[in-house]
Automatic annotation (TrEMBL):
Residues 44-57 have a biased composition (Polar residues). InterPro entries: AhpC/TSA, Thioredoxin-like_sf, Thioredoxin_CS, Thioredoxin_domain, Thioredoxin_ResA/DsbE_sf. The keyword Secreted does not apply. This is Thioredoxin domain-containing protein. Residues 31-57 are annotated as: Disordered. One of its GO terms (molecular function) is oxidoreductase activity. Residues 1-19 form the signal peptide. Residues 67-208 form the Thioredoxin domain. Keywords: Redox-active center, Signal. Pfam families: AhpC-TSA.
Length: 208
């Protein structure tokens, strides 16, 4: 009887946690499922991810992050949405915020909605570059999303995850703050208003 009560209690707690996550649909992280990785699909539907809330994202294995604070930023060149290219080495001397995201990721979308006011406008005219990179999606998917959200800021494209794989093996959104000397100042996984505030503070300190 005690075992049955414990099982029922555990199931009820799990359902409550799922309901809270579904209701918010905003903060947390999205972790790739093994089936998605095996299929090679670009992850455009709900079957492509599992949800991790801010309360559980601390349990995301560190092995999924391939770089750490103090490391030099991996060398890469990214093709931008407008057809231009950005070489990360060319941004040395500026503070850079690299953001990996995807159109199907609710926390990513919630984070991007804050970018114009909280990041781009705040640091306009300073030695700062915001470099969002769409992970695992086609230009067409990003274009449709940009038009729907009316975004005009630059976006990088990483349809084959070649750039992302230099930084991590799974989980978005991911943010990396790069110092003016090209070293990594911060590695953040997931999105919440509190995390965004911390990122802003780190960028401010790096610009001093």
């Amino acid at each position: 009887m005690k075992l049955s009560v414990h099982i029922i209690s555990s199931l009820f707690s799990a359902l409550l946690a799922f309901a809270a996550t579904s209701a918010s649909g905003q903060t947390g992280t999205l972790t790739d499922s093994p089936a998605l990785a095996a299929s090679g699909e670009n992850g455009t539907g709900p079957q492509a991810q599992t949800v991790s809330t801010p309360q559980t994202q601390a349990a995301v294995p560190e092995s999924k992050t391939l770089v750490k604070v103090g490391d030099p930023v991996p060398d890469f060149t990214v093709k931008m949405f407008d057809g231009s290219t950005v070489d990360i080495a060319s941004l040395k001397g500026k503070v850079v915020l690299i953001n990996f995201w995807a159109t199907w990721c609710p926390p990513c979308r919630a984070e991007l909605k804050q970018v114009q006011k909280q990041i781009i406008d705040r640091f306009a005219g300073r030695d700062f570059v915001f470099l969002p990179i769409s992970r695992g999606e086609t230009r067409e998917a990003v274009e449709k999303f940009r038009e729907m959200q009316r975004y005009t800021f630059p976006m990088g494209l990483d349809p084959e995850r070649k750039i992302y794989s230099l930084f991590a093996t799974a989980t978005i959104p991911r943010n990396f703050v790069i110092a003016k000397d090209g070293t990594i100042l911060a590695c953040e996984t997931g999105y919440s208003p509190g995390q965004l505030t911390e990122l802003i503070e780190k960028i401010e300190n790096a610009l001093k």
